[in-house]
Amino acid sequence: MKKTALFIAGIALTVSVMAQTSESTKQTQANKAKLKQQTTEVKTVAVPVQAAANQPSPDDVIKMNTVKHDFGKIKQGVPVNYSFEIKNTSNKPIVVENSYASCGCTTPEKIVEPIAPGGTAKLKVQYNAANPGAFTKDVHIKLAGIAQEKIVQITGEVVAEAPKN
Fold it and tell me: CA-to-CA distance for 101 and 151, rounded, in angstroms?
């Protein structure tokens, strides 16, 4: 009889543990589902959507006389120059932090002084016509406080000089 009582107590204990485990598993699954939903909501909320919209562009503060200059046909070995005019259309001085070209054959001069409101500056660009053929070169203009760069372009065709006999 003692063995039977112990056996029944053991079964009751096992059923009780299984019931608690089952309830605990259900609770854990419910917690995981709730946590997943909260995590998804946090990910959705954390994505910045307005960051780029608040950034000014170069076109908000400057106006170029042109963004593309075509030299036409030029002689090989003869460097050519063009000056892009930059006008400050804002009410604050504009600083040109940097200007650089897409390759070593094109050299923009550095603009040292800030451009006053309503004022203008010249960005002189030199192209070294070393190789014959058509060319398109980009010149990047980086303004202080503005992430986006302004890009201007020079194009043309370098014509090889006829061989001298």
Answer: 9
Mapped onto helix, strand or coil, the DSSP state of residue 36 is helix
Cβ neighbours, 10 Å, residue 139: 24
Q: Which residues of 63-96 are buried (b: 16+ CB within 10 A; e: fewer)?
A: ebeeeebebeebeeeeebebebebebeeeeebeb
Q: How confident is the model at residue 30 (pLDDT cuts 50, 70, 90)?
A: low
The Cα-based distances of 15 to 1, 2, 28, 79, 141 in angstroms read 21, 20, 20, 94, 77
**CA 70 to CA 96: how far, in whole Å?**
24
3-state secondary structure (DSSP) of residue 165: coil
31-52: per-residue pLDDT in tens?
666 656 655 544 444 444 444 5
Helices (H) and strands (E) in the chain, counts: 1, 8
Q: Which of 85, 83, 72 is nearest to 129 (CA)?
A: 72
Exposed, middle or buried, 141 (CB in 10 Å: 0-12/13-18/19+)?
A: buried
